[in-house]
């Protein structure tokens, strides 16, 4: 820009000195100031256009740089999306031979077969074991088990306190055994009845676990199956706990019988020690009286 202005200054000077130059050099080359000024103007306009083009080119360069950055970011995003999709697809794809490799059968509860029921007292007990229910268990117990008869009230009141305690203890053991036995019968029958529905749920869970259907292998489907398996395990554990409780109850009855027998033996020993002198004195007195009453003469006189 400075060079153009300087060039314009020289042209102005030459214009002012044009007559002298013409007079000095004479005709031949004639300087036209108007044309020179016009040429200078065209040069200035050309330079301005070049500056304008340079600015536009620089703007385009900045725009292209931004577009390149946008393209690079978009390419990175696309790569991440493809990677995530491939991972999700891989996680949702089940091995084709998973069921053949890991599926296993389990033992299922079986209903008891109908017994001969020779005297008509076995079927109610088997029904209680197959179907459960407190009423069915009580009916089965009453039909198949020996029932303890009530002790005659008049005879019981005539017994001494030790014998009454022994009879009452034995009746308590019998009644406790009846209660625990009917409860165990009802529990076993109920578990056996529910086993069919429980086995169906396990089969459905197993089928969904080994399924190759993508809808069964999503994250939500997997979490749902885990929760279902946990609930089934809890229900199964509850049944196991009931069976263990029933077994413990039966063991408690057997232990009670052993304790009662042992304590009864100890009580008898204590009673014998406490009453032995009196008993022996009574025996000796009775023997002495009997011997005195015996006649040794032939005619029956002393």
Entry summary:
The chain is an all-alpha fold and 302 residues long. It is 78% helix and 0% strand. Helix 5 packs antiparallel against helix 6 (134-144), helix 5 (123-131) crosses helix 8 (161-209) and helix 8 (161-209) runs antiparallel to helix 9 (219-293).
* Backbone structural class: mainly alpha
C-alpha end-to-end distance? 180 Å
How many strands, which pairing sense, and closed or not: the largest β-sheet?
none
Low-confidence stretches: 1-7, 17-26
Q: So what's the overall shape?
A: rod-shaped
Rg is 59 Å
Oligomer: single chain
Helix content: over 70%
Q: SSE string, helix = H, strand = E?
A: HHHHHHHHH
Give the count of structural domains: 2
Beta-strand residue fraction: under 5%
The number of distinct helices, counting runs of at least 4 residues, comes to: 9
Mean pLDDT: 82
The total strand number stands at 0
Keywords: Signal
Protein name: Vacuolar-type H+-ATPase subunit I/STV1
Signal peptide: 1-23
Can you characterise this structure?
The chain is mainly α and 302 residues long. It contains nine helices and no strands. The chain starts with a helix and ends in a 9-residue tail after the last helix.
């Amino acid at each position: 820009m400075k060079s153009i202005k300087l060039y314009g200054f020289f042209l102005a000077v030459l214009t002012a000195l044009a007559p002298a130059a013409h007079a000095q050099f004479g005709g031949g080359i004639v300087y036209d100031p108007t044309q020179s000024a016009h040429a200078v103007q065209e040069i200035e306009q050309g330079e301005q256009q070049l500056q304008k083009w340079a600015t536009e080119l620089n703007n385009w360069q900045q725009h292209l740089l931004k577009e390149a950055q946008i393209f690079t970011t978009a390419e990175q995003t696309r790569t991440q999306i493809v990677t995530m999709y491939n991972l999700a697809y891989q996680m949702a794809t089940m091995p084709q031979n998973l069921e053949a490799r890991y599926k296993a059968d389990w033992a299922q509860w079986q209903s008891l077969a109908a017994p001969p029921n020779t005297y008509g007292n076995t079927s109610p007990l088997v029904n209680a074991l197959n179907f459960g229910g407190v009423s069915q268990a009580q009916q089965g117990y009453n039909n198949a088990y020996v029932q303890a008869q009530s002790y005659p009230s008049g005879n019981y009141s005539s017994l001494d306190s030790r014998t009454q305690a022994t009879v009452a203890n034995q009746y308590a053991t019998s009644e406790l055994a009846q209660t625990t036995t009917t409860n165990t019968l009802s529990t076993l029958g109920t578990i056996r009845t529910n086993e069919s529905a429980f086995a169906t749920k396990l089969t459905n869970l197993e089928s969904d676990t080994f399924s190759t259907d993508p809808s069964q292998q999503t994250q939500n489907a997997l979490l749902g199956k885990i929760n279902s398996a946990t609930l089934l395990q809890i229900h199964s554990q509850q049944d196991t706990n009931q069976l263990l409780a029933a077994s413990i109850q039966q063991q408690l009855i057997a232990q009670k019988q052993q304790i009662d027998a042992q304590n009864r033996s100890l009580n008898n020993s204590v009673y014998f020690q406490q009453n032995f002198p009196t008993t022996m004195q009574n025996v000796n007195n009775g023997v002495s009286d009997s011997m005195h009453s015996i006649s040794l003469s032939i005619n029956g006189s002393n």
